[in-house]
Amino acid sequence: MPPKPLKLLRMRQNEDYEEYVKNLLDGKGTLNLSGIRVEITMDMIRRESQTLGSGGFGNVYETNYEGIVFARKEIKIPSQVSKEEMHRYLRELDVTRQCKACPFVVKFYGYYIYRVVCEYNFYIFMEKVPFSAAFMIEKMLKIGKEIPEFVLGRIACSVVHALRFLKDALQIIHRDVKPPNILMDYDGRVKLCDLGICAKLENSTAFSRAGSYPYMAPERFKEGYDDRSDVWSLGVSLVELAELKNPYTTNGNQLQHLIEAIGSHPSPTLNPKIFSDCLVMFISQLLQHDVKNRPKYAQIEQLEFFVLHDLPFTYIGTGKSPKKDQERQSVGKWIDENLLSGSN
Ligand SMILES: Nc1ncnc2c1ncn2[C@@H]1O[C@H](COP(=O)(O)OP(=O)(O)O)[C@@H](O)[C@H]1O
Ligand SMILES: [Mg+2]
């Protein structure tokens, strides 16, 4: 069943909005750790802990409660921010919370906000997912190996499920699909994270340029765009995972060059002598330069590479599909042998 519509996003035009934001800001959160409810304490917030990652907006730390390990994203918001900006920060919280029904998005446990002199400290608690796809690339470069196609397949299908959920259930697009925001656990379950700049589609279109340039679809530099710009970013991310380098950052990172390359060069492709026909064709579809030719999620789900590697939403090994059971186990085994071994 799809989750209820986003309360916060709907509230925007509504006079209850101020009240809603005020309640959020006063919120003394509780954590729901897979059924166990605990009050969030200052100790959980302040505890020095291992950094799991950092991005343009926040730092993410490992934290724990009585041995249960989870992740804490910290965002500092200046207290004089405009209502619109505050709305953008709170949207990440709201959307992550609404994604609880989707196993392909990082699971939300709770949040906490408090105000210090001139800023709000904002914490989002979520499940800890040990590896990012960016880490996988680094690790493969270090050990001189490639990421096999069945792992690429698992990533591709899971991200498509996550993006389709965002689009169909919440009418939003992610806008920052890239390897650092794609996470994988020890059993090979893939989860999309970082809903910080996702956008509500108004009449199916969004406009702003928020996001990471090397992954941006050509149409994002020109006009309004829709969910198919996330499809492009997934295509670029998969090429990067397959070749262990981003196809758009080889000639330096200058913004003007990048915009030119994305806008007017032919889309990146994978070498058919190295990769299977169905992966090469999958990538060429995701990276259709003209957005009108780029497939939507329902069409992507029909492509051979997707069908070959997809494990349905709630797949548990049943023995009825030995090939899928085998693939499911193989991803876990690949992680054991490649991501866990040696120095990280
Ligand atoms: N739940 C999580 N478990 C483990 N690592 C995470 C988790 N969420 C984020 N990270 C890591 O932290 C990095 C920054 O988090 P992210 O939410 O992307 O912040 P930003 O909005 O600043 O980009 C991610 O790229 C990822 O490597
Ligand atoms: Mg990020």
TrEMBL record:
GO terms for molecular function: ATP binding; MAP kinase kinase activity; protein serine/threonine kinase activity. One of its GO terms (biological process) is stress-activated MAPK cascade. Its EC number is 2.7.12.2. Keywords: ATP-binding, Kinase, Nucleotide-binding, Serine/threonine-protein kinase, Transferase. It comes from the Eukaryota. SMART domains: S_TKc. InterPro entries: Kinase-like_dom_sf (IPR011009), Prot_kinase_dom (IPR000719), Protein_kinase_ATP_BS (IPR017441), Ser/Thr_kinase_AS (IPR008271). Residues 46-306 form the Protein kinase domain. ATP binds at K73. PANTHER family: DUAL SPECIFICITY MITOGEN-ACTIVATED PROTEIN KINASE KINASE 5-RELATED, PROTEIN KINASE DOMAIN-CONTAINING PROTEIN. Belongs to the protein kinase superfamily. STE Ser/Thr protein kinase family. MAP kinase kinase subfamily. This is mitogen-activated protein kinase kinase. It comes from Caenorhabditis angaria.
